Please model this.
Amino acid sequence: MKPTPPRLITLSLFTCCLLTTQAGCLGIVSNLMHAVGVDRIPPEYEGLEESKVAIVTMTDQSQYSDDVAARLLTRKVSNILSMEVKDMTLVHDEAIQQWRDTHGWDKIDYLEMGKDTKAEKLLAIEMTDLRLRDGATLYRGRAAIMITVYDIEAEKVVFRKEIDEFTYPVQAGQYTSETTETKFRKLFLSMLSRQICRTFHSYDFADTVALDGTLASQ
Model:
């Protein structure tokens, strides 16, 4: 007889608790779910694993200069993915900046960039309509995001995802008297980078709850 999978055992216990509503049972099941990984959300795309990846961010301002928001978002996404994605290595940001300095900033051929920087995959993040204010006295960030992964050897797009409008904080905002635009931009891009990176690594479902609470610690 085959042993019962741990996830099936956990789900059976959870069903039992719902039927009996015994005190403390749901807490036990929650811990069991965490132990066997039932509460982790799988990545939408796992193809960055065991790959050398170039990461580049383009914004509305990138065609004119080295946009600070693009640079910060690339750095934050790179830091998270390097820790969360198994056996992924990064093309150094200096190699990408050198390529852009040589080829220009107005238009980018992602496949050519990937080949020239010896990448196996290229993650392109296109951020448009970035806004940090909601009125004159409130910081509340919004941006539209397009995520595209290129397989450089195959010369094709292997994954694409659009986020029509990422908003942070979801509720309310932060008064301009409480922080600076520079600090809020860093916070907004940190939250956005988490959202982007969850496309490529598993994460705890509990981490999606009450992200607005991050403001309280700023």
Observations:
- The CA atoms of residues 84 and 201 lie 6 Å apart.
